[in-house]
Specification:
Layout (H helix, E strand, L loop, with lengths): L7 H11 L9 H15 L4 E2 L11 H12 L15 H13 L8 E4 L1 H13 L8 E6 L3 H10 L2 E6 L7 H10 L4 E7 L11 H14 L2 E6 L29 E6 L12 E5 L1 H5 L14 H14 L4 H15 L5 H20 L4 E2 L3 E2 L2 E2 L5 E5 L5 H9 L3 E2 L1 E2 L11 E4 L8 H14 L1
Parallel strand pairs: 1-13, 3-4, 3-5, 5-6, 6-7
Antiparallel strand pairs: 2-8, 7-8, 9-12, 10-11, 12-15, 14-15
Helix pairs in contact: 1-2, 3-11, 4-11, 5-6, 5-10, 7-8
Length: 436
């Protein structure tokens, strides 16, 4: 028994009671429950890094937009499935002003979070061509997106991009695409969990191969503008949020209100379908939908059957935030830069105490400080490290559950760790180092 910052016996007992065969391989929500159980007994505060919940307040402009709409009585009315009239032009403007991409309002659709956006994307993109029955993940990735495919009973393949950055990505991607069974390819950028950001060269490679093999790119930009190495906050001014949409018409974008707008509770995100893809006809869609047109099948097939649209008032809240951002009155990026600052400080504490960063560069540039970082400790697997850290009051998730092949790594999310916990974190990491 060691003199660990959290009572050794309690942690050990709670781990046993959890009946998880390997704690280190538990899902995010299982870790959340286990830590809650330990806290209930010890009363100690944990450095909670397992879950990607925003740790900042939602913007007033969104809340006010929503309150006003509720007072006008929107709660009793079904919203249009493809979005209320005020949100569609604001999404289109947002895409133009912050990405410099031209899209049509008809392809700008609110979704119940980027989570529903991905689910709906699979329902249509993965069934558009009967010969293409497999979705490809450029991993590591957001674990629930694979769970969605499992729930749907669809096939997927995945590879860890760690060893395939830059030009190496071309051959790797092509080795999947050339088999002819890949309907769509999905990745997040910035990436959850590794926080790598694809370079323009990499986005171009993805686009070129998507064009060559007619694969639909599902670009998940849940962490829009959160690569804080460049200031992406000025509407209509470069630099813009990097996107595959600069290089192909065969794309769908998934945006989220949850992270950069701290609006996770209202479950609102956005799907943007390229004008060409929206209009494109896929005869095989008729197997499932009344129309063979991609955009029509998405709205009146997928989004209708999933939830018949997105919460009415949340759409008004989101529209108000987008309008304020588009008008240059609300710098939504400035607010969340706090995450980058926290990451910078916390990463220093980890590396100062013998830990290593796992995904640490974007080819030739140090990785950005943002919502997540990945770390390891010499001589330990990620599963061992995760379990051991629980005795030190620190929780995270194993990278293996994200499709990463870095068996040694854990993912840390900085959002729930407040600055007044930094002293505790430093002390606990020091203790950990002392004991290991
Ligand atoms: C990469 C990625 N995509 C999508 C989501 C889901 O976002 P939302 O809350 O908008 O459903 C998350 C949330 O953690 C995420 O990390």
């Amino acid at each position: 028994m060691k003199d660990t910052p959290i009572n050794y016996n309690v942690v050990k007992q709670k781990i046993e009671e959890s009946r998880l065969p390997v704690v280190g391989n538990a899902t995010i929500r299982e870790i959340v429950r286990l830590v809650n159980e330990i806290i209930k007994v010890t009363g100690d505060r944990y450095i909670r890094m397992e879950m990607g919940v925003p740790g900042l307040d939602p913007p007033d402009v969104g809340i006010q937009g929503e309150i006003d709409a509720l007072k006008r009585g929107v709660a009793s009315k079904y919203p249009m499935i493809d979005g209320i009239t005020v949100i569609k032009p604001e999404i289109k403007r947002f895409v133009k002003l912050f990405m410099n991409i031209d899209v049509e309002e008809e392809g700008c659709l609110p979704t119940v979070g980027a989570m529903q956006g991905a689910f709906a994307a699979y329902l249509v993109a993965a069934r558009a061509n009967a010969e293409k029955d497999t979705v490809l993940f450029i991993d590591p990735g957001f674990p629930v997106q694979k769970m969605q495919l499992k729930v749907l009973g669809y096939k997927y393949e995945t590879f860890d991009v760690y060893d395939y950055r830059g030009e190496k990505l071309r051959e790797k991607l092509e080795s999947y695409f050339r088999n002819g069974n890949i309907s769509s390819v999905i990745y997040s950028n910035p990436n959850n969990p590794s926080w790598i950001c694809f370079t323009e060269q990499e986005l171009q490679i993805i686009a070129e191969l998507a064009n060559k093999y007619d694969v639909i790119v599902i670009e998940d930009i849940a962490y829009f503008a959160m690569d804080f190495r460049t200031d992406l906050s000025k509407p209509g001014e470069p630099p813009y949020q990097p996107t595959v949409a600069n290089y192909t018409d065969n794309y769908m974008l998934l945006l989220s209100g949850s992270k950069v707008f701290s609006y996770a509770g209202q479950r609102i995100g956005m799907m943007i379908i390229s004008p060409e893809l929206f209009k494109r006809r896929y005869p095989d869609l008729k197997r499932f939908f009344s129309s063979d047109q991609f955009g029509y099948a998405m709205i009146f097939g997928a989004l209708y059957t999933l939830s018949a649209g997105t919460c009415h008032s949340a759409q008004y809240g989101m529209a108000a935030m987008l309008k304020a951002a588009n008008d240059g009155k609300f710098n939504f990026v400035e607010v969340v830069k706090e995450y980058g600052e926290r990451a910078r400080i916390m990463k220093k504490m980890f590396t100062g105490n013998g830990f290593n960063m796992v995904y640490d560069t974007d080819i030739d540039k140090p990785i950005a400080d943002g919502f997540y970082f990945t770390f390891s400790y010499p001589g330990m697997t990620g599963a061992e490290l995760l379990e051991e850290l629980l005795y030190y009051g620190i929780s995270a998730i194993a990278l293996t559950i994200t499709g990463s092949e870095r068996l040694e790594g854990l993912r840390a999310c900085v959002s729930q760790v407040s600055r007044d916990q930094f002293k505790d974190l430093e002390y606990r990491l020091k203790k950990f180092k002392e004991h290991h």
